[in-house]
Design a protein that fits this description.
2 copies of one chain form a homodimer.
Chain A lengths: L2 H5 L6 E3 L2 H22 L11 H8 L13 H18 L3 H17 L8 H6 L8 H4 L1 H19 L3 H16 L16 H12 L2 H13 L6 H8 L36 H18 L2 H17 L31 H17 L3 H15 L17 E2 L1 H6 L19 H10 L6 E4 L2 E4 L5 E7 L2 E9 L6 E7 L3 E9 L7 E5 L2 E3 L5 E2 L2 E9 L3 E6 L3 E6 L9 E6 L2 E6 H4 L6 E3 L6 E4 L8 E10 L10 E3 L4 E10 L11 E2 L2 E3 L1
Parallel strand pairs in A: 4-8, 17-23
Antiparallel strand pairs in A: 1-5, 2-22, 3-4, 5-6, 6-7, 7-13, 8-12, 9-10, 9-13, 11-12, 14-15, 15-16, 15-23, 16-21, 16-22, 17-19, 18-19, 19-21
Helix pairs in contact in A: 2-4, 2-18, 3-4, 3-5, 4-5, 4-8, 4-18, 8-9, 8-10, 10-11, 10-13, 11-13, 13-14, 13-15, 14-15, 15-16
Chain lengths: 653, 653
């Protein structure tokens, strides 16, 4: 059995039963998937068309026309198929299933006899396939299609899509690899690595594992493959003009060094974390310690140096990229939703490699903040870039901040994020639990029912909680008569006080705590109940002093949720607000917020600007502040109540 | 007589005798002009070539070759000629004069029989002249050449260059204007307006005045001329590809509205302030009140809403442009040196229109801060962009800050700023004094000797001062026996305490103070001496609370000089430093600084970062600061002691 299957539970075995999360899983089924289906079919008024389904129909020969949209439009459709499959795994839906089947039929028709499948190259540049891995996302699209096929097979048991994609993967395997006559290429946008691990796990075919390992290990070797292929095609470029070398650096695509030698996260953030996720998969499946160390180094670099407090990454929109250690500007931030999802994927894989709560802490941080921020509460508007502070007039009038949209958009010409959120939300059940031998780990606190099998015996864990608004979690063990196993509960990094009761009896946590998990080893009997109580109070958080953008500032966090100020609650000019380091912050259920969410309030100060003369811009300093009540709301909810300013890092004295 | 001549003194009549400024005037003659001569002749190793002289030689038919460099390279040569002429006006220099004459000969040879002169169009696109005013800087180059010719004539009395340029201006006048058959065009980059006013003043030819007024008044009328000419040439673009509309807006070139209706400074900052300077010239010469009001509105908008504390303008490098009110980011600032010079030119003209100290305050603010910052203390390195905070690693690794150079450069491919600084420094004597009937105004405190003529009688004012390091100014009236006139001394906006002595006797200032000037009306006798003492102490300055970037921050200013922190004095990570609002700041002569300049020191605090764990990026807030002595140096001197961090706006509690 592969290592991954050993340490995970199938998505089908986890039922979400949670007020907070069922809102999202319902939204996926009722709003997000239908909305995105319309988007992929170019039926959203006043939104950039996707062309994804149309391109596929043309490739399949059922429609006439020309390819339109970006070179990687297939991937949007693939991510939607993956999301739809996860949804079907937990809840049947005839309409959805028929839409999915319709697309799979078209993919089958479009696929060429040798297994190749990519609508751009089939329709627009036949004969030029595999000539520009650097720029044209061919392996990236293949990866998303493969992931979708695996998800579809696991959800429905139907093999059609999986077989189509196995033929495609076999074709790819015939083209790339270390053997003489094969191309020594690797993807310009990493992603297929992850997909091939999944395909290997579901089919058991080692050639998919080996192909994934080849892509990972070949990366960064000299001569650089992207130069070799560019030379071969006469330096014709997809994005730039002929003869003009694109401005992208080797770091942009993470091929500046062999992966084991990479110490800092660089370049396009999504590509980076997809690569690192693949590396972690490889380390898990092969036990390659050197690769595992490289993953740890890169994960530490990201989370210890280059991650926003919201779990987002990517400090610049230019290249959608990492910049350098401690450079986390709030005003020109990028923090793409896909990158946050990628960091969650990477952290999840690190957790499989090494059971340590810090990985789940980052998963949770990204999930409850920068990822959920990417989608409107009503499910049909999306952020690509998730800012840390918003001044709508600056977004409009200062070109350096034009990428920062003050409201979620209907769709994007490059619409990678919306279906990526959909597939994450619809597979959220897969991130809650994992296993290691006789230990069942609970990583996330989400009301749910896990059906696990331990030594051939069924165990049910029923988790109940009002997380993230409340820190109490109840877990009941069911479905057994008597069974010995270790139940490990994550002690979140944000929590400094917690209590544990087993069947009503207070238990000490201290000696049970190892690497961020409270281990409860005992012989369980049916109905045994744990109550884990994490004290959840609003806290002021500071960033490392080297983060220049946040010097003299604090952010409010309660549990895993980062808070922000919005203009609708606090008036214009949020930068004029400051708080004291000993501010008393009160958390309360706010009926005015969707889902009766928890808001935070306290007494702050606001710089008084009423005493300034017209046209006076500078003058000798006089302190002049007015007390104000500040109200902070969960960051992920921002921008759901009209356009206005937003601020995460508040001046603090 | 024109209004301008009525209210100014010829440059020749002002001798600079000043420790601070003679350093610069000597530098101009001994270092800057020779260095820039070499740059224009492509003789600076490892610097981008200018091609300016080479293009001229090709146009003149004395060298073979192709035009190289940007379309407006002529203007760099023109500004150098203007700077050289100002220098010759106050100090003869045979080598320099022969270099100037050599260039003027070439210009004469290059000029076409009908008077046209522009090396780009003569060499590279003959037959396409005046087809793309929008983008190709043809009138801009003409303007700089005309300004140079006027300066040369005034300096040397030689008419050759002036005559060449009169022929060119006559040609332009034959092409553009309101008359039937003429083009109703105006410059894409404003500048010729200023030049034509100068040409009118020196020649007395009203057609130059009328052409300037035409360019100003035609601007922004519909149909937009730039659309008309683009249509005529089939939308061929100089910077973009054929058929592709450039991304520039109408605001970028200030033709979105007729000039009288423009209320806010918009678009490319240099173009804007050159236009407004021309408008102020027009208001002065014609008495057009509506135009004067437009100038006041625009000047107020800039200085009351869009100006950095250093007197710089341009909040974004994208389009080198204004953004919007109170948007003055420190990290992505542009603040081009040319724009600061342009604001000085505009303010100088406002001062001619309306004697109010606020205009001279802004002149002085730009001069001692963002303008002098543009040139290294040794005279041969230059800033294009003048940042408000520098983190060298960010300049290198965060593309949003790549335009912010942490050190002055040898030259630029687009080298507008270096010769612009040269012409400003070499004509500084022209900004110190002006007159209004029987009143002699002193705007700037610079050691100098003015030879004025009042009602046909000669009056000499001998000004002595150690400004900007010391606030004491002595002015002695000489060259007369007895004469009644009004001597008006500017009371700077930064000064809140001053004293005045006439011939040793203390005089009250209050009743003499009108619109920022202390008026001393009396019958002067030879040797009468005024001692004006401005108390000069370091002050903390705050920005308007709407300037979000500076909320909770203060800048240090002493007299007209803005200060900054540098890494060389204060260590790495300047953002970790904060000061108290009641900090005691001591000013002292610092022998370690060039020119024994005044530095400022005081006790601040620094966030302690020694107690953070490896890989810890966020944690609950704990105040933990260490007292530190901070040292601030004049902003204009920054970056003269190696590469390092710099910060103007310091966190302040």
């Amino acid at each position: 059995m592969n290592k991954f299957t050993e340490c995970t539970f199938p998505l089908k075995n986890v039922r979400i039963k949670d007020e907070f999360w069922n809102r999202y899983t319902n939204l996926v089924r009722e709003v997000i998937l239908p909305y995105q289906w319309n988007a992929l079919n170019d039926r959203i008024p006043d939104a950039p068309p996707s062309y994804a389904v149309r391109n596929l129909r043309i490739a399949a020969g059922v429609e006439e026309g020309e390819y339109q949209g970006l070179v990687f439009q297939d991937s949007d459709m693939a991510k939607w198929l993956e999301a739809a499959s996860y949804s079907l795994a937990v809840q049947p839906d005839e309409t959805l299933e028929s839409q999915v089947d319709e697309i799979i039929d078209l993919i089958g028709k479009a696929q060429l006899p040798d297994g190749y499948m990519n609508t751009y190259y089939i329709v627009k540049e036949p004969g030029r396939r595999w000539t520009n891995l650097w720029e044209c996302h061919e392996l990236y699209c293949a990866g998303h299609l493969i992931e979708a096929a695996v998800a579809h097979y696991e959800a429905t048991g139907k093999r059609k899509f999986l077989d189509i994609m196995c033929r495609f993967a076999d074709h790819i395997d015939s083209v790339f690899g270390p053997e003489p006559g094969k191309k020594r290429g690797y993807p310009g946008h990493e992603e297929i690595e992850l997909a091939l691990f999944k395909l290997y796990r579901v089919t058991g075919e080692e050639r998919y594992l080996n192909l994934a390992l080849f892509f990972i290990n070949e990366r960064g070797k000299t001569p650089y493959y992207f130069d070799v292929e560019a030379e071969e095609r006469g330096w014709v470029h997809h994005w730039a003009h002929k003869g003009q070398r694109p401005s992208q650096t080797k770091e942009y695509n993470q091929y500046h060094l062999p992966v084991r030698e990479q110490k800092k996260a660089v370049g396009h953030a999504v590509r980076a974390v997809y690569l690192y996720s693949g590396m972690a998969d490889a380390a898990l499946e092969t036990g390659d310690e050197e690769l595992g160390d490289a993953c740890r180094t890169l994960w530490n670099n990201i989370t210890g140096r280059q991650m926003y407090i919201t779990g987002g990454i990517g400090s610049t929109h230019i290249g959608e990229a990492f910049t350098f250690d401690y450079d986390l500007p709030n005003d020109t931030v990028y923090q793409e939703t896909c990158a946050s999802i990628g960091l969650l994927l990477f952290s999840r894989r690190m957790l499989q490699l090494e059971k340590h709560g810090k990985y789940a802490d980052v998963m949770e941080r990204a999930l409850y903040n920068s990822i959920l921020s990417g989608i409107a509460l009503d499910g049909n508007r999306f952020f690509y870039c998730n800012p840390m502070e918003v001044w709508p007039e600056a977004s409009e009038k200062n070109p350096c901040r034009r990428h920062i949209k003050p409201e979620r958009q209907k769709w994007y010409g490059c619409a990678c994020c919306p279906p990526n959120i959909a597939r994450l939300l619809s597979s959220i059940g897969g991130y809650i639990y994992s296993r290691d031998g006789n230990t069942i780990y609970t990583h996330l606190y989400i009301g749910s029912e896990l059906e696990a099998e331990l030594d051939g015996e069924k165990v049910i864990l029923a988790q109940k909680t009002d997380y993230p608004w409340d820190g109490e979690v109840t877990i009941q063990v069911m479905g057994i008569t008597e069974k010995e196993f270790d139940l490990a509960l994550r002690m979140p990094g944000w929590c400094d006080q917690a209590s544990l009761k087993i069947n009503g009896e207070e238990c000490s946590i201290g000696y049970r705590l190892r690497d961020g998990y409270i281990h409860i080893e005992r012989t369980w009997t049916n109905g045994d109940t744990i109550v884990f109580q994490m004290e959840m109070k609003p806290q002021l958080i500071q960033a490392h002093p080297q983060v220049r953008a946040n010097a003299g500032r604090a952010a409010i966090q309660r549990g895993p949720v980062v808070y922000c100020l919005e203009e609708v609650d606090n008036g214009k000019n949020l930068s004029a607000i400051s708080i004291s380091h000993d501010i008393r912050l009160d958390a309360y259920r706010d009926a005015a917020l969707p889902g009766n969410a928890v808001a935070v309030r306290g007494q702050g100060m606001r710089i008084n600007d009423s005493l300034w003369d017209e046209n006076e811009l500078y003058r000798p300093l006089q302190l002049n502040v007015t007390p104000v009540t500040i109200k902070a709301v969960p960051y992920f909810m921002w921008g759901n109540r009209g356009i206005g300013e937003m601020l995460v890092w508040i001046r603090c004295q």
